[in-house]
Amino acid sequence: MGRPDELAGSHMDIDSWSDTAGWLLGWLLGWLLSWLAAWLVGCQRWEFLGREKYIFHKKWACHLSSQNKKEGSQRNRKCPLVIDILVKKVTRNTQKNDSYLKKSPPLQGKITITGQHSHQTDNYKALNLLRISEETKEIFNEYFNNGYSVANALHAHEAQLVLKYPQETEYVRCNASVNPLPRTVYHLHKIWLKSTYGIAWSNKSPIEKLKEKLDQYKQEGIDVIIDEKDSSRWCVLIVTPIMKRAHSLPEASEIIFTDSTASCDAENTVVSIVLTATKGGAVPLCVLLHNRQDTAGYIRAYQMLAQHKPNCFGKKSCPEVFMTDDSVQEKDALATVWPDAIQYLCHFHVGQAEWRWLCEGKNQVDIDERQSFIRLFQQIMYAVNTEQYEEAKENFMNSCSHEKYQDRVNSFLKREREWALIFRNETLNRGHNTNNFSEASIRVIKDIVLGRTKAYNSCALVDYISHVWEDHMQRRILHYAYDREAKPRLVYNKLLKRMPQETKIEEIEEGLYMVQSAEKEGLSYEVNSLVGWCSCQSGRSGHFCKHQAFVFSKCGVGFPNKPAVTFNDRYKLGLLALGPEKCPKIDFFKDFDEENDTHMIENSFLQDIQMDQDICQQEQDTREISEHQGVGDTERREKLINELKAQIDRLHDVVKDEGGDTYDKVLETLVSRLRKPATPGQVMETMIRWKAASLVCSRRRGQIKVLPGAIQRRKAGKSRGAGRIRAGRPPNNQPKTSKKPLPRILNKSIVANKPHVKTHSRK
Ligand SMILES: [Zn+2]
Ligand SMILES: [Zn+2]
User: Fold this and answer.
1) If you measure from the C-alpha of residue 171 to the centroid of ligand 1, how many angstroms do you get, rounded to a whole number?
2) What is the pTM of this model?
3) Ligand 1 midpoint to CA 108 (Å)
4) C-alpha dist (Å) from residue 273 to 46, 440, 475
5) Residues less than 5 Å from ion ligand 2, measured at CB
6) 380, 347 contact by CB (below 8 A)
7) pLDDT digits (tens, 9 = 90+) for 256-297
8) Close Cβ partners of 662 (under 8 Å, ≥ 6 residues apart)
9) In whole angstroms, how far apart are CA 508 and each of 535, 540, 761?
């Protein structure tokens, strides 16, 4: 039925005419007395001294009445139904004139219903028009607090209602007071966002709101540190409990992976992650949010980590190796803050950049030569010893006929220590030659933590990282701790299988073994079980090779780089995920007969050298932006912007006399859109969109394009163009199956001699 408080407070106490005269007289007298008293005492407030006749009196109208509604609105059905509820006071005075109150017991309540509904009350429309109840509002706020998006909350709520009311499902489903309409929930969500995270899309940084929440984070054990010494640059350091525990892992002192992305929230805040490789996958040491993507912005962010968590790299102040993509700003900043660390480039990104360069039309590389050129380059990159390396370099210089490409590789060779495999034997990079951990983690943030929806602002982003990502990470590490991941076990078995059982092992001293080669007779390799190292090709960088696996299976000695084989390793992962208070006792992690046989096969992740073509999801657009910023050619930039201004003036001159109203409207919209972007990230995004829009208009003049949303809904493999896809029965003479797109594997692109495909867009 109607909303009870629709007409609340607007009633007049007109009950019966016989009583009115007496009541009026009393009221007048009371008013006069109070006025006199106020005047005499000089008080400004007048007390009402009239007789109180009622305990309660309220009128309710149907919610589709004309009360407070505009003419023609859909709720204005002019419904005349009114309910009047009155509870009278029982005193000697009231009883004098009221026949009902005189009765014994006195009848003091009165309910009057006037009129009838002017509309149906049991169809979908009447139910849809009901207003959301306060209880439902609270339920939805609770959904939002638990990280549900609007769509998820609506879905979950309706599913629950259907379960709760199996008899009257359809009635409840339509009832907007318990199952609100999407637009109501969007409105609720907007209010909730504002109250929880402050304001987005403005010049004001959401840092103020974040400061209010610092105490709450502190109670949860999450370190959120804000640095905003000057107003245009701010930086936030987030360290959650799992990250804190990861700081003391010995792995954190060896190789660290970093990457950043700038499309996680509406303000395009830069999110930089610093990761270490554990036996349960990549675990971040911290997450840094900052609003600038230049070198100074990165330096400031990294300095915050160095200052507030000085021993975060496995209790050391500096790791041995940093693995990054080829981002100038990031690399410069790392070199400034941690000058002693060695920097490596991701092999996948190096190969991809070369192939893209070769495929680019402006470089004029013959299509038949591209494959041989990239193979020559790969020979240099993957050479395993000095002879091979020198030979590959010579081979390249002799065979590569393209002058421009030769220059490019020559200048790149000046940085050979960063990317050639041969120089990686000197460090303990544990076989990691790509930045896959960072790429995969960024994908986890975007796909799982944010559900492919940009966060509302950076304050919301802090919440997502410290709660949703933390929960996800905990679950994943526990999967390793409880032996629920099959892949590491399979990899370990595969390594063992490659070693014949009769292979000889000789212990030279404690932790040092000589293992016979499986292929070549008379050759043996040195295995160090304390460091986790082998003198073979694969084990030289600290990667867990088949010789180490064999020594481990025979002698059961500890290798720091081995998969989490023993209950001890699994227990350590449990500690990392849950902390010492919540983690079960060490016995909980033991297999049935593990006490006797400590070298059981267990879980871990092994990074394969050849995996560099795999998961790499690329933040190409972000990188493109940063590369352009790195050019630093201010003069050229100024010239270009002046040219742009001049072109806009020229366009205006052409159209100003003939454009008419349409032109005015276009200008108005353009100006209002261009006013919105405030931060550098937003401006850059606007400019890129502007550029993209101008390309479309020159290429597809005169076509009516489909809505952008329609393109997004298309199945994988369908055209992503703005044209409509042909519908209807296909002609008989055409093959039924469409051609599959090339998989996103660099090597396959090279074999097919096609440009490398992009499957992930920035959003
Ligand atoms: Zn009505
Ligand atoms: Zn080996």
Assistant:
1) 18
2) 0.67
3) 28
4) 67, 11, 19
5) 534, 536, 539, 545, 547
6) no
7) 999 999 888 877 889 999 999 998 899 999 999 998 888 999
8) none
9) 15, 19, 55
